[in-house]
Specification:
The protein contains eleven helices and eleven strands. By secondary structure, the protein is of the alpha/beta class. The chain folds into two domains: 4-91, Ubiquitin-like (UB roll), CATH 3.10.20.90; 98-331, 3-Layer(aba) Sandwich (Rossmann fold), CATH 3.40.50.
């Protein structure tokens, strides 16, 4: 193994090294590895500066525009810990405007089963998950409960239409949200995981009355810093939400057999495809809120499968058919 001194004087390799980043008159240190991407580097910088990755512009001698490619591996760049990197970026003052102005991900995709398994089983992606587990400690808002399953929920387009405008955020809340959370709380602990910043997660969930509701409790909140960047042969690199992060920190409560995740982007559960349910996006709230019944139907599904000891064998793509079959069985019982 190379010595620490030789690592610090050479370009970034697979070993972990420390880089110095200058921003707003101060210097910050971040630790990265060669198999990290530029996007991962920006995530590390965000942890110490609170400047979101999408707001960062990185400057480094002789590297230039390459640092604008979030998918590029750091091992492909001549980064040395002896040189300092400059970051230009601003911490948002108006987080709501930030969400409206941010680019929307439209091209969601569903990977083939073989490639999805390959991504999940790739050693480089497993290594990224292990590093994320070491670096990201989940802070509980409420205790985990013995015997309960786990429901992990996205925010944007899952619980809330973050693109439409309204004078009152409650106008953009998905119909039956509180009824849904109240009903499933009897069988599930609830974790909310958004690809945005923690500031925005706390603000939006607070405005919607989710964090202090007397009828249910939220176990924890996670943001984009808990995500990892994975590599796909057909789709390149992209971020996802690995449930293994939660399972590793609370193994006595949660595992692949008792966890389900709702997200409008399938890519977000590529590291745990058996546990993901692609929810219909809630968009154009003003015209759709009177007819959106998704959370009502999903309440029935969650309560029905809560009776099972192991839900990992279910095909959540067919959740609506499962509801129909359950109704028929009970009607003829």
């Amino acid at each position: 193994m190379a010595s620490t001194s030789s690592l610090l004087s050479s370009a970034v390799t697979e070993e972990e090294v420390t880089l110095t980043v200058k921003w707003s008159g101060k210097e910050y240190t971040v630790r990265v590895c060669g198999d990290d991407t530029v996007g991962e580097l920006k995530r590390r910088i965000c942890e110490v500066t609170n400047v979101l990755p999408k707001r960062q512009k990185l400057l480094y001698p002789k590297v230039g525009s390459k640092l604008a490619d979030d998918s590029l591996l750091l091992s492909q760049l001549p980064l040395k810990s002896s040189l300092k990197m400059t970051m230009i970026g601003t911490v948002e003052d108006d987080i709501i405007v930030d969400q409206v102005d941010s680019p929307e991900i439209i091209d969601d995709f569903e990977l083939g089963q073989a490639e999805a398994v390959d991504i999940k089983d790739k050693e480089v992606n497993k290594q990224k998950l292990r590093k994320r587990i070491d670096r990201c400690k989940i802070e509980l808002r409420n205790p985990c409960r013995n015997g309960k399953k786990l429901l992990v929920l996205d925010i944007d387009y899952t619980l809330f239409d973050h693109r439409s405008t309204a004078e009152n955020p409650l106008e953009l809340m998905r119909p039956y949200l509180h009824e849904f959370l109240t009903a499933v709380y009897s069988e599930y602990d609830i974790i909310i995981w958004s690809a945005t910043s923690m500031k925005w997660v706390e603000l939006k969930m607070g405005e919607l009355g989710v964090l202090d509701n007397p009828n249910y409790k939220i176990t924890a909140l996670l943001d984009h810093l808990a995500m990892i960047t994975v590599q796909s042969d057909s789709r390149g690199t992209f971020d996802c939400k690995p449930l293994g992060l939660i399972w590793a920190q609370f193994p006595e409560f949660y595992n692949s057999r008792n966890t389900i995740m709702f997200d409008d982007l399938r890519r977000n559960f590529v590291m745990n495809p058996q546990n993901g349910l692609a929810i219909k996006p809630f968009k154009q709230a003003h015209s759709n809120r009177d007819k959106d019944q998704e959370l009502v139907k999903l309440t029935h599904y969650l309560l029905a499968i809560a009776e099972l000891d192991d839900i990992s064998h279910l095909d959540h793509k067919n959740w609506e058919s499962y509801n129909e079959d359950t109704f028929k069985r009970r009607r003829h019982a």
